[in-house]
Prior knowledge:
Elements: H1 3-7, H2 25-33, H3 39-54, H4 60-87, H5 109-134, H6 137-153, H7 165-186, H8 191-214, H9 216-222, H10 227-256, H11 271-281, H12 290-312
Amino acid sequence: xxxxxxxxxxxAIPMPSPAPMTLSPLHVWLLAARPRTxxxxxxxxxxxxxxxxxxxxxxxxxxxxxxxxALLLQIGVNLANDYFDFRAGIDTPDRxxxxxxxxxxxxxxxxxxxxxxxxxxxxxxxxxxxxxVAGWPVILVGVFAILSALxxxxxxxxxxxxxxxxxxxFLFFGLVAVGGTFYVQALELNARVFWAATPVGLLIxxxxxxxxxxDIATDGRSGKQTLAVRLGPQGARLEYALxxxxxxxxxxxxxxxxxxxxxxxxxxxxxxxxxxxxxxxxSAHGAALNPVLGATATLALGFSLLxxxxxxxxx
Length: 315
């Protein structure tokens, strides 16, 4: 901190860049919500609901509530990430990723903070309904999910800045999201949930890996020690390849173990796309990774829908 910042602490808080364009308020908030990330919320709910359907325990209202809650949590995480990364000085004008509404000046930091709080409150309302349906375990999951969402980029020990985000994304978008969706309908868990949830979490974690690989240089300069920064570019590319390979190995192993039905292997129809992405990420750098990020999100959703469809087909 400079002498002038010590005399006036407000100078240490980064100020948003001038807005680069004039957009309607609705368009700006859509940008803030980052709709291209929302397949990561849809995929696990689809798989969890398919598991419930296959078990003869599908319930429409809890399934829809789980989907709405997952979408709200994803949007809340996006807003929190936008706000906290801006306040921490991580988002700078040389950022290579999609537009951030706070850093670009499209929304004031306080507006984004209020939007984040409102989104998490709405998620809490959905959680209240699911608590009434499925009982006290939903309280634990809901509280832990919101705290982790806030702690992803904010708080005294931001998960994303200490190399822990990959694990938490796998945990929440895989095991918790799929398992939670199944639980609020079936009121129980079983081994098949684990086998189906694991590949979903692995593929959604791969989306984060692409994002962090793209931002290695800017994150490193700002002190954001993501796992990609710690592993380096080649290490992050290896992590990506291993995540995709494991995502296909798990259903195959689950089928051999008798936990995944044969039709669950329909997810392998997306395998050629995964191979192409592994080849693409091996040579892409910087902003060229943005299409790979979008394609990885599409892969995760397509894989999950194929897996879900296979789970509900008659044996």
